[in-house]
Amino acid sequence: MGYTNLAYVIAAILFILGIKKLSSPKTARNGNSIASIGMLIAIIATVVSPGSGIELDFKLVAIGMIIGSIIGATFAIRIQMTQMPQMVAIFNGFGGGASALVASAEYFNKFGTVDQTTFLTATITLSVFIGTLTLTGSFIAFGKLQGFISGKPIVFPGQQAINGFLALALVVMGVSVCIGGGQEMNMFYGVLILAAILGITLTIPIGGADMPVIISLLNSYSGVAAAATGFVLMNNGLIISGALVGASGLILTNIMCKGMNRSLANVIFGAVGLEQESVAGSDKQIKVKSATTEEAAMILEAADKVIIVPGYGLAVAQAQHAVREVADLLESMGKKVLYAVHPVAGRMPGHMNVLLAEANVPYEQLKDLGDVNPEFDDCDVAIVLGANDVVNPASRHDTSSPIYGMPILDVDKSRTVIVNKRTMNPGFAGIQNELFGFDNTLMVFGDAKEMLTTLYKDLKEL
């Protein structure tokens, strides 16, 4: 066991280094590789020394590892970068489900024996509760992201009261499982069922605008479930890795909430994007100025500094390579080009960073909210590609707006703003964007990839 614990310590160090490097787009790939090596070391250490009194069927272990590796590799190779949020949601669910299954197996194995201590039962119950909630919540999130379920908040009368009742019932059943009384097994099944239902009812009210927050929160849940399972198995590696994932996911959730200037409770219970639809429809129609790609090209030709603002529309159109080509062409014409990345743009944390990294956009050009906003003061042209709420000036002054107080990208301070959207439909928050009616804003309607491809040709012809 001494060598095993040493291996877990090494794995933990690699996990920490990996997470540290994941905090920057420039080192994220190396961070992912380092963390993967750490996980491989932890897996090998566990298989070689599973613990006293535990005998493994190495054939079954090998089969499981091979099947899991094939599935993981297939996902990684075949899933497009635009589908990365769905992949993250599925992996969160798999993590929670695995923790719940392992904890359940341990409960059935130790039930009624002298090894079934109160501490063991409590940790099993916690792991099953959080893991099952994560599983169903993650698959609801996947359904919303994939379009199987409406991306708008789904609410019904008495929803929060029902959630409160479910939570209270789970506490009562969990305590009953731990203290015994003859109905422990039935109570255990009750925890499984109610946790699954609660995962659904907590996630369906989440709208598209809040998906980055809920994805990072579910990631944190999966880590907590894994850590609880580590206590069930007395596996130091699992405890350490689960705690790291849980803590980092919670920190990321907090960062996402700050990026929207909202509390976590408001994200979970606020159902932003639902009630605002009727308000948006009754607002005075915004008068916009449309432009062609030829006109946009002439404006860009005269510019010295250009800032590109990617949004979810860029991801939907899979236009990351097209925008890189346009940016490279502008640089060859002597323009300074930057990318402004809002922390909650897209459907998951770092969504835009992942897309732009896939197109090999230079890391030096990627600027976050705090660094890039001063750059707009002397920016000649800002190109907004499918972003909406994160560039809406209403967040600064309209106290009735659902996005009031949310830090935004100050694109309106640029000399000219070129906005590309398919239609004038509102963003996830369900409100109109007053930026579109500003005197310095030009709207170029259409698919982002098609628009950028045409814009590239028009720039080449100048």
Automatic annotation (TrEMBL):
Chain segments annotated as transmembrane: 6-22, 34-54, 60-77, 89-108, 120-142, 162-182, 188-206, 238-257
Q: Which GO terms describe its molecular function?
A: NADP binding; proton-translocating NAD(P)+ transhydrogenase activity
Q: Which residues form the NADP transhydrogenase beta-like domain?
A: 5-457
Instruction: Provide GO CC annotations from the record.
Output: plasma membrane
The protein's annotated catalytic reaction(s) are: NAD(+) + NADPH + H(+)(in) = NADH + NADP(+) + H(+)(out)
> Belongs to which family?
Belongs to the PNT beta subunit family.
To which species is this protein native? marine metagenome
What's the Enzyme Commission number for this chain?
Answer: 7.1.1.1
Q: What is this protein called?
A: NAD(P) transhydrogenase subunit beta
Cell compartments where the protein resides: Cell inner membrane
Keywords attached to this Swiss-Prot or TrEMBL record, sorted alphabetically, are: Cell inner membrane, Cell membrane, Membrane, NAD, NADP, Translocase, Transmembrane, Transmembrane helix
A Pfam family it matches: PNTB
- Give the way it sits in the membrane: Multi-pass membrane protein
InterPro entries per the record? Answer: DHS-like_NAD/FAD-binding_dom (IPR029035), NADH_DH_b (IPR012136), PNTB-like (IPR034300)
Q: Please explain the role this protein plays, according to its UniProt record.
A: The transhydrogenation between NADH and NADP is coupled to respiration and ATP hydrolysis and functions as a proton pump across the membrane.
